[in-house]
Write a structure and sequence with these properties.
The chain has about 375 residues and is mainly alpha-helical. It contains 17 helices and no strands.
């Protein structure tokens, strides 16, 4: 919610701090830089710590970073707050993989990831829809809006400390204790893991560019309000969260993961291009619905690390973190690419059209990942 609602707040932030398009792009990508550089070492470290308390620590760090951003007197401090926020979030990802491994048998992982996708859609979509309302309610004060997000994170941390639990079965402990210094090498030996990462990177690059700049583009080119464009993006995210639940299960049940990825990749590219070319609100609602439907691919690819043959818990934590690193890589490149291209050409429409094409990576992933071979090592 915090990462992807920036586009709604960006016009207010830019006016207050007098940011250039390039600075806006940097701000949109900053929270993901740490993920790219530190994903593997943090995943390796987190795989050896308590998942419950690591998660609690990362949510607490996120809370502190949100209040830091709300106080920021200038661009540099705001950029630092976004960067530290992202580092905390990447440290949380391997613990999610370990908790999933603890609580769900292999055949239920795609369902668990699908349910996670539903919550992602509801929370991020809800954030996109509510952020403009919150911003208006507090008189356009983006700082106050971030403080409200900070309170939300603080409550979330408290709930997790009280209710979060681990399930350390004897089998899980034996698998986990068998890890050694080759954990990273063991996790990264899988060919399909790399292809999975590239697929995620392209799709998240398109999403990152749109989330950061689409509200501004629609306001400037079609005179659509931030509230309306934020709601349009929110619908796509919510639909994507819900569709991932049944699309992921349907693809796995029918062993048609490849076909699903190829079709959804083509649908994603087409819907993004359509969203740039029209200012018709009714048509935009239709396009964002199909774009959200295309994001139902997420649980299909996210389950790849769990299905790698012979992977151990500590290796799984690294493999999962490695996958999320590619998601972050794409999401960070998206706003940066759009901001720099807009600065160079003065054409935000062109920049958004080009970033739309990055989602072609999903089609490539669908063609290359060996789902039928149960993802054996390279």
């Amino acid at each position: 919610m915090v990462l992807y609602s920036l586009g709604v707040l960006l016009p207010s932030i830019s006016t207050d701090l007098n940011l250039s398009p390039s600075q806006q792009g940097l701000l949109g990508s900053a929270s993901l830089w740490g993920n790219i550089v530190l994903a593997i070492p943090l995943s390796w470290a987190a795989s050896r710590l308590s998942p419950k308390w690591t998660t609690a620590a990362t949510i607490s760090l996120g809370t502190a970073c949100l209040f830091l951003q709300s106080w920021a007197p200038g661009f540099a401090v705001l950029l630092l707050g976004r960067l530290l926020f992202g580092i905390g979030q990447i440290a949380q990802q391997p613990t999610r993989a370990l908790l999933t491994r603890q609580w769900f048998p292999p055949h239920e992982v795609v369902i668990a990831n699908g349910l996670g996708n539903v919550f992602f859609g509801l929370v991020v979509g809800g954030g996109l829809a509510l952020s403009p309302l919150i911003l208006e309610a507090v008189g356009g004060e983006w700082r106050t809006t971030l403080r409200i997000f900070g309170v939300y994170f603080a409550v979330l941390a408290l709930i997790w400390v009280v209710l979060g639990k681990e399930r350390n079965t004897v089998e899980y402990k034996q698998d986990r204790d068998s890890g050694d210094v080759s954990t990273v090498r063991g996790a990264l030996r899988y060919r399909d893991l790399w292809i999975c990462g590239v697929g995620f990177a392209g799709a998240s690059m398109s999403l990152g560019g749109f989330m950061a700049f689409y509200p501004t583009f629609m306001l400037e080119d079609f005179d659509l309000s931030i509230r309306l464009s934020g709601s349009i993006l929110a619908v796509g995210v919510i639909v994507g969260g819900i569709s991932g639940m049944w699309l992921g299960y349907a693809a796995a049940s029918a062993s048609r993961e490849r076909l699903y990825l190829e079709v959804l990749g083509a649908l994603m590219v087409g819907s993004y291009i359509g969203m740039v070319l029209t200012g018709s609100a009714p048509l935009l609602w239709v396009l964002t619905f199909f774009n959200g439907l295309a994001w139902g691919f997420f649980p299909i690819l996210l389950t790849v690390p769990f299905n790698l043959r012979g992977i151990r818990p500590q290796e799984l934590a690294v493999a999962y973190g490695f996958t999320i690193m590619f998601v972050s890589l794409g999401a960070s490149l998206g706003p940066l690419f759009v901001g720099l291209l807009q600065d160079a050409t003065g054409d935000l429409r062109l920049a958004l059209l080009l970033v739309s094409l990055a989602s072609v990576s999903l089609i490539g992933a669908g063609m290359k990942i060996r789902f039928g071979d149960r993802l054996s090592a390279a």
